[in-house]
Amino acid sequence: MLSPELVKKIKQIQIYTSRMVNASFAGQYESVFKGRGMQFEEVREYTPGDDVRTIDWNVTARANKPYIKRFVEEREMTLMLLVDMSASGAFGTCEKLKNELAAEFCAVLAFAAIRNNDKVGLIIFTDQVELYIPPKKGTSHVLRLIRELLCYKIEDKKTNIPVALDYLAKVTRKRATVFLVSDFIAGDFSRSLSLVNKRHDVIAVNVQDPAELGMPPVGLVEFKDAETGKIRVIDSSSTAFRRIYERENLRRNEELSQLFRSIDVDSISIETGRPYIHDLVKFFHMRHRRV
Q: Is the CB of residue 281 less than 8 Å from the CB of residue 25?
């Protein structure tokens, strides 16, 4: 039984994300994420001007007159949401936690997908696969995905991205568009990501909080690593420490970006402290220019 608070939150996300899909990038999703190519529709008699390369020679031989194969664009697509729900997602210094931002971001993508009659599936993972919901269509299905993302109870678990990618490869045989949503605080996953990206169109979504990029001077702060449980006290008033902290985070983000570029994976960075819709629209524009 869902709590009234959770029902209200799901409804708010539905209204908010549906409005954004309608107002901000209606049609952009379809233009950027096309179907898997062409599918056969019918065989019909050849007429002057038809491409001779489409002649069906078997039917032509039987009918003793030329026939061609007709194809149409296969528009339907499968969207897979691969979402990291490890313990580091239960962090946020703004209006939302990182895992709440991830859920809302996925809701926008899911509503855009069903608007274009595409299927949407979900894999929630930590250091193991926690939940798999096969791709389906429809608003009720999308609402279930949102509910599962919001209801998932964060435990002290680490992140294992290769496990999730390997599972995706097993359950998703046909080519799909895959949004890998994580803060990427994890071990090496480059090989698994590269292999999956050869079969699917993978987009990495880096979920961050402003405090992970720069720390304010607030004196002594006790930090606990959500995934290991280790506790450390830091003097945030130290200018030298804050500079090192910012430099290391910039270095980490740059290395992550370089990794994505090296294996031809597009990426988006979203933050709890700023509207993500601008980042998504900008990404759509970038992809559209390449189509």
A: yes
Q: Can you give the length of the chain in residues?
A: 291
68-79: average pLDDT: 71
Hey, what amino acid is at 73? E
pTM over cut 0.90: no
Q: How many CB atoms lie within 10 A of CB 238?
A: 14
Per-residue pLDDT tens over the stretch 178-211: 999 999 999 899 999 999 999 999 999 999 999 8
Residues facing 207 on adjacent strands? 270
Beta strand 266-271 with 201-208 is: parallel
Residue 176 contacts residue 80 (beta carbons within 8 Å): yes
**Which residues, other chains included, contact 266 with Cβ-Cβ below 8 Å and sequence gap of 6+?**
202, 203, 204, 260, 283, 286, 287
Domains identified in the chain and CATH numbers: 4-32+76-290 (3.40.50.410), 37-74 (no CATH)
Assigned token pair, 178: 């895959």
Beta bridge partners of 55: 68
Q: In this structure, how many other beta carbons lie within 10 angstroms of the beta carbon of residue 280?
A: 22
Which phi and psi angles does 80 have, rounded to 5°?
-110, 130
CA distance 118 to 77: 5
Structure tokens at 122: 């979900």
Question: What is the identity of the amino acid at 20?
Answer: M
> Encoding tokens for residue 108?
């926008």
Nearest of 178, 163, 153 to residue 125 by alpha carbon: 163
Specify the long-range contacts of residues 187-194, CB closer than 8 Å, at least 24 apart: 187/160, 187/161, 189/161, 189/162, 189/165, 190/259, 190/262, 190/263, 191/162, 192/161, 192/162, 192/165, 192/166, 193/161, 193/165, 193/263, 193/265, 194/263
